[in-house]
Amino acid sequence: ETQVDAFFTLEEYLRYGRQMTVRELGISGQRKLKTARVLVIGAGGLGCPALLYLAGAGVGKLGIVDNDVVDTSNLHRQVLHSTERVGQLKCESAKTYLQKLNPFVEIETYPVRLLNSNSFAIFRNYEVILDCTDTPITRYLISDTATLCGLPVVSGSGLRTEGQLSILNFNNTGPCYRCFYPRPPPPNAVTSCSDGGVLGPAIGLVGVMMALETLKLVSGAYTQDNFKPFLTVYAGYPTQSLRTFNMRGRKADCKACSLQASITEKMITSGEINYTEFCGRVNYNVL
Amino acid sequence: ETQVDAFFTLEEYLRYGRQMTVRELGISGQRKLKTARVLVIGAGGLGCPALLYLAGAGVGKLGIVDNDVVDTSNLHRQVLHSTERVGQLKCESAKTYLQKLNPFVEIETYPVRLLNSNSFAIFRNYEVILDCTDTPITRYLISDTATLCGLPVVSGSGLRTEGQLSILNFNNTGPCYRCFYPRPPPPNAVTSCSDGGVLGPAIGLVGVMMALETLKLVSGAYTQDNFKPFLTVYAGYPTQSLRTFNMRGRKADCKACSLQASITEKMITSGEINYTEFCGRVNYNVL
Amino acid sequence: MSSIKLKVEFLGGLDAIFNHVREHKISLPYSGEPPKMSDLIRHLADNVMTDKKDHHIFIEDGSVRPGILVLINDTDWELEGEDEYELEAGDVLTFTSTLHGG
Amino acid sequence: MSSIKLKVEFLGGLDAIFNHVREHKISLPYSGEPPKMSDLIRHLADNVMTDKKDHHIFIEDGSVRPGILVLINDTDWELEGEDEYELEAGDVLTFTSTLHGG
Ligand SMILES: [Zn+2]
Ligand SMILES: [Zn+2]
């Protein structure tokens, strides 16, 4: 391996040359990518495309949290798994492929369900968190943990033919998930992709957008001055469209991120905050 | 393999269940996908994500035209190739992975450069053409051939942090590439991704959008009544955005698609129409 | 009795309880005081919703239920006064379910 | 001498020859007849372009060069009269290079 400078080998210059010449990233952005540590929670419909483009771009370290195994019904949208890996852990299946795509990326897998008891220990090794999960329960846990750890969250979601994208806790001054949603939705109103269905490219597009937002965060495209809280909404039909809405800043009384915040790490790790109770359980009799 | 009905096995129902429950596609759309034959020209930054989601979705037959080989500098954005396949033909590399993702898809590779002499013979086996190529020369050839064969073209392109998407020759009544661009751009104004650089997720997003447009075409979401000629423009910075512009219909004097069209299959196959001359050659001395 | 013309959008699957129509042109009748968001929300629940048994999907405790975002001319309604916002002719009001799938 | 206020956008990399600014607020001066697209295009080339030697990137044979799409309020200018379109205050004029990369 011929070392060209303090940062990159010749092989790395060849590999990343086409993106380093893009003014918005540049060599300085590529250097930041190389030292960046990014955690992707969920290696499903959002996580697969996000991981493909983050690994391709040369993020230094990628963490993947997922305790689920690959199922045939995933493969129409979770395109980095494959038929021969049905039954394997998604995080390991993802690692296998991503390591072949880009051996320069260090990949760490966490074949666990993200819980009150493990979220802090995992998050503390990373600088940016991608929320590619499937239920409000985990989304609140991710946001609270990231906020207490001082980390930004790139948050994506999708269902059927639509998707949503936001950045939470930007620079420890932007709004968190609780600012947007102080009260959880009634459990019967929550539909996962497995239950409600989803088109592969629709959820895939949101995952790709998450990768680009992550590149922006890592390379410093967003600053305290230019960042405005946003929610971008994608619709696949009738015409593919993106709408970006201007969102509230931090809520003055947010339990997680405001000056009056009451939530502490201990309350989470001890289980005093019970996300499952907070979000309620689905009462199927109501339907 | 347990056959459930005339169309699908149990395994296929499991595999495609999550997308068949989406109202916009449905079981009828899934059946149309299974009998669809889709040709993707170019297995690069646009072709890779388009192919991943088209194969995942269960298109019956996919053709891949590309005579290029995988290069290290491709891998940041051409995420279905991998480091061990550097030097292999892109169309074969793509087939290897896609066949693992979805063995139900029939994949045919064409390790050739698309030329006047072979375009008709290849196109005639397909129903929808995806233009994932890199130069105006090929884009005019694709549009002319598709128009003369009566096929729609899903046309994508991208550079640096931006992208463009359109559908050409819809239902043999929509505008073709020549309607939009009767005169080619001066050759010095044309920049490829290899020369100008591109961010992986930016070009990737356009490729994913192309896959969804293809699903719409195949499943019949676009009709003679509701289809309006469009150009959708993606920008990755500062905020990821899509703008859709209302475009002209067929030009009354279009040489390829109008009632006064003068271009014939023979003029193309014989080489009488010389796309390289039409588009001109780059004169590097001018720069 | 006057009325004010508005554009109302239902995204994130919320169109399912409004006749599967994503964009509605609404003419909101009122007398006296100009109407507020709370008046529009009541009108949508009472007169535009397809089936009254879906009421709880849209309304909780007299306002929009948690998990539905409300945008006034592309801006979070929290920045515009929420229920108390005074509607103006031509306003675009967007209601979208939060999506959770991944 | 009057003037008309317009929004002009340069996309597809075309901002590079207009000071790397994607959105310009233009106040287009005119006297007599209301100005047309051809007047705006001349104004952009003469007064907004950063460097005169980039002229050929924007202009060819007196109009916008092939490979640049022009949109008038999000609609292809071919549907609006091209060079002859009469500008109105508040119009949004978009110029975008055709991209060819894949
Ligand atoms: Zn908060
Ligand atoms: Zn034509």
From TrEMBL, chains C, D:
Its main location: cytoplasm. It comes from the Eukaryota. Acts as a sulfur carrier required for 2-thiolation of mcm(5)S(2)U at tRNA wobble positions of cytosolic tRNA(Lys), tRNA(Glu) and tRNA(Gln). Serves as sulfur donor in tRNA 2-thiolation reaction by being thiocarboxylated (-COSH) at its C-terminus by the MOCS3 homolog UBA4. The sulfur is then transferred to tRNA to form 2-thiolation of mcm(5)S(2)U. Prior mcm(5) tRNA modification by the elongator complex is required for 2-thiolation. Also acts as a ubiquitin-like protein (UBL) that is covalently conjugated via an isopeptide bond to lysine residues of target proteins such as AHP1. Pfam families: Urm1. It is found in: Cytoplasm. This is Ubiquitin-related modifier 1. The keyword Glycoprotein does not apply. Belongs to the URM1 family. The modification 1-thioglycine is found at residue 102. Pathway: tRNA modification; 5-methoxycarbonylmethyl-2-thiouridine-tRNA biosynthesis.
